[in-house]
Every structure is written in C-alpha cells, then in structure tokens.
UniProtKB/TrEMBL annotation:
Entry-linked SUPFAM superfamilies: SpoIIaa-like
Gene3D superfamilies (alphabetical): STAS domain
Domain STAS: 1-91
Protein name: Anti-sigma B factor antagonist
Species annotation: Lysobacter stagni
Length: 91
C-alpha cells in the first residue's frame, strides 16, 4: 500500500496513496488549516471509513465544491453514509 500524501496546488488539495486509518492522523495536521475548493482524489488507491471521515470533514470546513476521482471504496462508503458527490449529507 502506498503512503498517503497530500499537496496544495492552487485551489486544489491533491491526495495520493491509500486514505486509510493509519494515514489519517498523519494527514490531518497537514490539511486542517488548508484553503481549497476542490479535492483531487485521482491518485488515491483506496479509501476506508477513516479516510472518508477526513475527506467529509474537509469538505464541510472548506466548502468544497468539487471532488475529482473515484478511488476504490469511495462509492460504497458514500452510499452507506448517504453522502453526495461533495461528501455532504444528502437529503
């Protein structure tokens, strides 16, 4: 499994690797004060529930308007938690 990474590219936070429980504690300090409108997940290999929680919290805090990419596990978790494409709770 690839180490999870994040980088700021203008108005985009680009993630890579596996967004899983072991990575969340390392990534959170890097992103909690970020400023972005887009999350780019195209280089993410997989997401578990802890990774989804990180992404959903960022979407809420930052007002993310677009999430690009569909890594393994994201669609299933979005459906299970009834989240829309921007990881906000659907109605």
């Amino acid at each position: 499994m690839a180490t999870a990474t994040v980088r700021q590219d203008g108005d985009t936070l680009a993630f890579g690797g596996a967004l899983e429980r072991t990575a969340v504690a390392t990534l959170w300090p890097q992103v909690r004060n970020a400023s972005a409108r887009i999350l780019d997940l195209r280089a993410v290999q997989s997401v578990d529930s802890a990774g989804l929680a990180l992404l959903a919290e960022l979407c809420e805090r930052l007002g993310i308007v677009e999430v690009i990419g569909e890594p393994t596990g994201l669609a299933e978790l979005r459906a299970a938690y009834r989240l829309d494409r921007t990881l906000a709770f659907g109605s």
